[in-house]
Write a structure and sequence with these properties.
There is one protein chain. By secondary structure, this protein is α+β, with helices and mostly antiparallel strands. It has 12 helices and 21 strands. Strands 13, 14, 15, 16, 17, 18, 19 and 20 form an 8-stranded antiparallel beta sheet that branches. Strands 6-3-4-5-10 form a 5-stranded antiparallel beta sheet, with no helix packed on it. Strands 2-12-11 form a 3-stranded antiparallel beta sheet. The longest helix is centred in the last third of the chain and has 34 residues. It is globular, with a radius of gyration of 23 Å. The N and C termini lie far apart (56 Å).
């Protein structure tokens, strides 16, 4: 696939960095090991993190390709908020609290589904809402009584669609600036051309605490060992060592969004070192693979042709559910039986690897730290992505605490102002 000038430059720079590390036997490194008290994975931290992060920041809750046509909608539950995302007749994507303004029931049959509709009819009493959220009809209005329909529209949530991704805030009235929040990551996402993807499968996997789960997505140190008989063997690597490079994007020095790449996805040091004599002009996307993470809960291991987009949804302090979106530019309806079988086999492989290796380890880690045998989690100098992630969490929690403190210390006059 053709590369833009930005993509070509990024590919050259990334491959150069990996080749240099491979030749020197090094990797991107932080100044020091990062130590994190295990208490930050416990329930008291989870409640604060949900308020400081998940209820305040824009979350990537849907792919544009999931709502390709007017009337397409996606219903899902995030924490205690039922969310409804829909593409209206005007082709604009909007998000609402999935709650009928009559008696509070979800206006979709369930709170977890995809579909297409002309209008939403609440299953409880058949109040009808348009795809732009407006209340258009009350069942048997003569008997029900007069209501101001304009004041009973679905309650809208902040929502913005950009370059194939749909971002939503869980808090009504909250504002966000995606250009500022995403920073250079927006250009990275643009290169993926995600609006051209199709979703081929959505396995759901359970894991432990959301941060334990996320830790595995932002470092490649574990891949040659935890996945030695699966992905490591599949990629035919010649070495157990790995090279990883990390780049941060967004308003913080540590991101909060990241691009992680290197040899862990098929090109180990022995192979990459051989590229020192290859002209830079010959570097292509086939020589490199990047994993992009959108804070706080998205991992994108994909390129223009497709790949895997993982959404990590915290459920409780010790449970997280991941939706694996397997995407491709191939329309499932146009694929042969053989191609469909190959895609299904690929989905089954990555589902099994993540479930049986990564997420099994997450439960083991959670059980281990609860014993008190470990008081600190150590993130090595070669685990810069994990360090950046936890520094980002700490930043938003500290910001939230400061705002709460300022509000509580304000005088009554200041509070009214």
């Amino acid at each position: 696939m053709a590369q833009s000038p930005y993509e070509k430059e990024q590919t050259i720079q990334m491959v150069k960095r990996v080749v240099q590390h491979a030749a020197a036997g090094t990797t991107d490194s932080t100044p020091e090991i990062y130590k994190l008290p295990v208490e930050t994975y416990f329930p008291q931290s989870w409640d604060e993190e949900m308020n400081a992060i998940f209820r305040r920041l824009p979350l990537m809750l849907a792919l544009s390709c999931e709502l390709r046509n007017p009337g397409d909608y996606k219903a899902l539950q995030i924490l205690d908020v039922p969310v409804l995302i829909v593409r209206g007749d005007d082709n604009k994507v909007r998000a609402f609290i999935n709650t009928c303004t009559h008696r509070g029931r979800a206006v979709t049959p369930t709170s977890d589904e995809l579909g297409n509709t002309k209008t939403f009819v609440c299953p409880y009493h058949a109040w009808r809402f348009a795809t732009d959220g407006k209340l258009v009809a009350v069942a048997d209005p003569r008997k029900f009584g007069e209501v101001d329909k304009c004041s009973l529209n679905l309650r809208e949530l902040p929502c913005e669609e950009r370059v194939g991704f749909i971002f939503v805030s869980l808090t009504r009235g909250m504002t966000f600036n995606l250009d500022e929040y995403l920073g250079g990551m927006l250009e990275e996402l643009t290169c993926l051309e995600a609006d051209k993807w199709f979703v081929h499968g959505r396995p759901r996997l359970e894991s432990a605490n959301w941060k334990i789960t996320h830790d595995g997505y932002v470092e490649s140190y574990h891949i040659p060992f935890l996945h030695r008989t699966t992905l490591h063997e599949l990629w035919k690597r010649e070495s157990l060592s790995s090279v990883s490079i990390y780049d941060a994007y967004g308003p913080l020095d540590c991101g909060p969004h990241q691009r992680m790449g290197g040899n862990a996805w098929g090109y180990d040091p022995a192979l990459m070192a051989k590229m020192k004599d290859v002209p830079e002009s010959d570097y292509t996307e086939h020589h490199f693979h990047a994993v992009r993470t959108l804070f706080p809960m998205i991992s994108i291991s994909a390129n223009k042709a497709g790949g895997l987009v993982s959404q990590l949804f915290p459920i409780s302090s010790d449970r997280c559910v991941t939706v694996q979106n397997h995407v491709s530019t191939r329309d499932p309806a146009s694929m042969s039986a053989e191609e469909t079988k190959a895609m299904q086999d690929r989905i089954a492989l990555y589902t099994a690897v993540v479930r049986d290796e990564d997420y099994s380890s997450s439960f083991s880690i959670q059980a281990g730290i609860k014993t008190g045998a470990v008081t600190e989690m150590l993130f090595g100098r070669n685990e810069g992505g994990a360090q950046n992630f936890h520094k980002s969490v700490a930043h938003y929690v500290a910001q939230y605490r400061a705002e709460k403190q300022a509000a509580s210390s304000a005088t009554p006059t200041e509070s009214k102002a």
